[in-house]
Specification:
With about 120 residues, the chain is mainly alpha-helical. It has 2 helices and 2 strands. Strands 1-2 form a two-stranded antiparallel sheet. A hairpin with a 6-residue loop joins β1 and β2. The longest helix is centred in the last third of the chain and has 13 residues, at about 80-95. The protein is elongated, with a radius of gyration of 19 Å. The chain starts with a strand and ends in a 6-residue tail after the last helix.
């Protein structure tokens, strides 16, 4: 059985058989039959799905009734988790210090800071 995990919380899931439309994560109670947990989900594809015959689902995180759903590794799609980890690994590869996570407010103030102050 391939490794699967919940998109919402990242919990490892042990699923035997198909995922029902109303099935939820035992850890966080998020819908498992959602686009974000589907192996066909791809942000770069039309309607964010690699299946050309799939209906367009507006809320990708909510449970749906797509007949083409196949459980995938949802945690690999969690927002923000991959980018920061990849940058830290890249910095470590070249012997640099890991980049500091800058607060959005600090970045905005630095962008619009008046010169000559």
């Amino acid at each position: 059985m391939p490794a699967t995990s919940c998109y919402a919380c990242g919990a490892a899931l042990r699923i035997d058989g198909p995922v029902g439309r109303r099935r939820t994560c035992p850890e966080c109670d998020a819908d498992l039959h959602s686009c974000m947990n589907c192996r066909h989900h791809d942000e770069s594809s039309p309607h964010a799905c690699r299946e050309p015959h799939a209906d367009n689902v507006v809320d990708k995180e909510a449970g749906n009734s797509c007949e083409l759903f196949q459980m995938g590794d949802g945690a690999s799609r969690r927002r923000g988790s991959q980018g920061a980890a990849a940058r830290a690994q890249l910095a470590a590869l070249f012997g640099e210090a890991a980049p500091r996570a800058e607060a959005p407010r600090d970045a905005l103030e630095a962008l619009f800071q008046k010169k000559g102050k």
